């Protein structure tokens, strides 16, 4: 008995899916419909590949498809990584995604927010906003360190070290 299914949607567009994987996505999408029609819980996992799936139009189409499913419990954004390249190299095969880098943290945040907002997934939106707040905290910390390293001056004869405490309080 299987009570939860994990489905990876590598690309929502069938032609682009064929370019990416060598196979159609029709069976995957049909299986998702089957699961939904038979009240089977599922998580949708979307692989985020720069220049291929990192596109607002494709994210919107993915959202439109997910909206037709009634049993999706969670949507995960999976950033592409290059860890599989070593296997291809060891086998003497050409890596089909050679030259494509992993998405930046900002690109992942963007996709999470877009996919979360357009799919109505509060958890994805919250994760995206949390990532943005982490970024803001890091910037505030760096500014605090930079200001704290300033040399003493007539207005601050003992230096600026206390700035670190103030930025810590702000964070």
How would you describe the overall organization of this protein?
The structure is a single chain. 52% of the residues lie in helices and 12% in strands. It has seven helices and three strands; from the N terminus they run E-H-H-E-H-E-H-H-H-H. Helix 3 packs parallel to helix 5 (105-119) and helix 6 packs antiparallel against helix 7. The radius of gyration is 22 Å and the shape is elongated.
Give the topology.
Layout: E1 5-9, H1 14-21, H2 26-37, E2 42-48, H3 56-67, E3 72-79, H4 85-91, H5 105-119, H6 122-148, H7 163-170
Helix pairs in contact: 3-5, 5-6, 6-7
- Provide the residue-averaged pLDDT: 85
What spatial form do the alpha-carbon principal axes imply? Answer: elongated
Low-confidence stretches: none
Strand order, biggest sheet? 1-2-3
Beta-strand share of residues: 5-15%
Gyration radius, rounded: 22 Å
List keywords for this structure.
single chain; 171 residues; mainly alpha; 3-stranded parallel β-sheet; 52% helix; elongated
What's the short version?
The chain has 171 residues and is mainly alpha-helical. It contains seven helices and three strands; from the N terminus they run βααβαβαααα. α3 links the parallel β2 (42-48) and β3.
């Amino acid at each position: 008995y299987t009570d939860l299914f994990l489905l990876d949607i590598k690309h929502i567009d069938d032609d682009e899916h064929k370019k990416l994987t060598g196979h159609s996505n029709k069976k995957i999408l049909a299986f998702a419909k089957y699961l939904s029609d038979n009240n089977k819980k599922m998580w949708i996992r979307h692989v985020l590949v720069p220049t291929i799936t990192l596109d607002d139009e494709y994210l919107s189409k993915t959202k439109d498809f997910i909206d037709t499913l009634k049993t999706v419990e969670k949507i995960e954004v999976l950033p592409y990584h290059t860890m599989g390249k070593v296997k291809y190299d060891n086998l003497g095969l050409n890596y089909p995604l050679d030259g494509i880098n992993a998405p930046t943290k900002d690109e992942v945040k963007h996709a999470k927010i877009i996919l979360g907002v357009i799919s109505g997934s509060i958890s994805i939106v919250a994760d995206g906003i949390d990532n943005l707040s982490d970024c803001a905290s890091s910037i505030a910390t760096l500014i605090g360190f930079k200001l704290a390293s300033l040399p003493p001056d007539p207005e601050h004869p003992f230096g600026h070290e206390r700035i670190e405490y103030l930025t810590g309080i702000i964070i």
